């Protein structure tokens, strides 16, 4: 941000972030923050006024539509997670502007800074993040399937309508089989690298998650978690069989987030036939052999969905409603990106 910039923020919150940006752009700039909830808007407006930043415009509306009255913008920033890139953000962003948003991509959420490059948006930086999801007309399509009679156990898939929740829950209550992948890693490597590797190659990629005090008593293998709060594991679900990444069964879930992550042997827990277990172990070994690509070195290009594009062998394409994302690692070896 620089003095004089015009900024649009989606997700007003308390107004604190808007105040910081207003300070940076100064009196010659302008900040507009927009939110879908009237009580949030009223609160942010009051907080900004009491802090001496009543020059910030606080608007009520669906941020996915942008804010045409104050466009174009030098910077558009989202403080909520987006599943897609709204056409309005492209249209209201100056040609030399920046769009910064938490974007759902390849089984993870990544904070991406985009810049215009011809008819595309191209990433300038990518880092891991976790934000609550955007609501309104441009909310993500449904992905959650509730399992069991009690609250807190959910399967996240690309086609929730195709999942029988009773059968899925019964499958997860069956006796599992655990197998080592032979790969050692830390949790962050798995999330930033192996999870996208799997999600880009498996149409039935999923996350299994349990939340609440009873999370430890569920069938969710421990890959990520905190005792009494949550457990989650990525994997593949194909109706009559499922497999998930996990730590060794002897590893106990911590009582607080890891301060100094330690390497562990990556296992696969399978339910049903063993084919999925073997596939996940092959993915882990292939990712390891390819040099463990992660968000570091990743490039994301965002094209309008109606743009004609033929990817090369090193590129992975993710289609959204309005956008076609093209992912590659341009400075990696050929083996890394295939």
Rg for CA atoms: 22 Å
CATH fold-level label of the largest domain: Rossmann fold
Q: What percent of residues are in strands? A: 25-35%
Mean pLDDT: 93
Question: Whole-Å distance between the termini?
Answer: 37 Å
Tell me about the largest β-sheet: 10 strands, mixed
Give the structural class.
alpha+beta
Give the helix tally.
7
- The CATH class name of the largest domain reads Alpha Beta
CATH-assigned homologous superfamily of the largest domain: Vaccinia Virus protein VP39
Lateral arrangement of strands in the main beta sheet: 3-2-1-4-5-6-7-16-18-17
- What's the number of extended β-strand segments? 18
Order of SSEs? EHEHEEHEEEEEHEHEEEEEHEEEH
Q: What can you tell me about this protein's structure?
A:
The chain is of the alpha+beta class. It folds into 2 domains: 1-140 and 297-338, Rossmann fold (3-Layer(aba) Sandwich); 144-289. Helices cover 20% and strands 34% of the residues. It contains 7 helices and 18 strands. The chain has helices at residues 16-25, 38-50, 87-92, 165-172, 187-199, 275-289, 334-337; strands spanning 6-10, 30-35, 57-60, 73-78, 93-105, 108-117, 120-128, 144-146, 153-156, 177-185, 205-211, 224-226, 230-237, 242-246, 264-271, 299-304, 316-319, 323-328. It has a 10-stranded mixed sheet. Strand 17 (316-319) and strand 18 form a beta hairpin. The longest helix is centred in the last third of the chain and has 15 residues, at 275-289.
